[in-house]
Input
Amino acid sequence: MACTTKIDYTPQVSEKPLGLPQITQGWQAALNIAKATGRPLPAVAANAPDAPTKAPEDNANARIGLTKGAVIETLDGPKPVENLKPGDLLRTGSGAYRPLRHVFRVELDAPRRAIRINAEALGPGLPEKGIRLPRDQQIHVTSDIARRMFGHEGALVPAHLLTALPGIAAARVKDRVHYLLLMDRQDTVLTRGVPTETLAPCARNLDLVPAHLRRAITRLYPGFGQDKPKAARHLNVPKTKRQKRLVHKHANSGTPLLGDDPAPEDHKTG
Output
């Protein structure tokens, strides 16, 4: 599998007035060098001037991320995932806007079936239009049932477990390219209004990062090198048996998976 990583930096993004986390000195130094030399940020961070932008990928079975054409809500309006750039401010499931740090464009060794979610299959207006997700991409379920079972934050559930519900099924179209979004911490972004999980910076996800970028990424995000998934993943990921039970309860009751979507707040950050 080949993997291309898009890494850019947009100095025009005004982070301080929006109250966003400040870029560390290490980040800023790497960004300055990358901008001055035109070299990719991972190559600068890893001190490898000749680091390739494409390399064989040893994880050919990645089934998370977003597929081409997925529309993400940003501060500048809806954008296809393939047009996102680091520095873009993405609206999260909480309603806050947070900066995107990296976009990994992963080309799989073979096309893989996605899960098709029809318009309003998850609730009124959710999604706004039909979407496709890789089978293991997690959706943040915030229904009353989920909150009763798992607490106020609800739970993450992989897309393929939702096929027991009407309007959700394996897609006929197969996708070969997945986009992984990396933010400062595990979060969710809105894909046609549906809260989908971003790549959490923890050790269990390091094998999803292209092999030739792992050294650089672990320097920028120490969490990838630490086996502390609970610290990096603040959203609840129940065991499969309980996830299935949650879906079964919804199938029986006919209630929507997603609760009220938080109202947008101008320039709200977290």
In short: The longest strand covers residues 102-117. The radius of gyration is 18 Å. The helical segments are 25-37, 41-45, 144-150, 214-220, 229-232, 240-253.
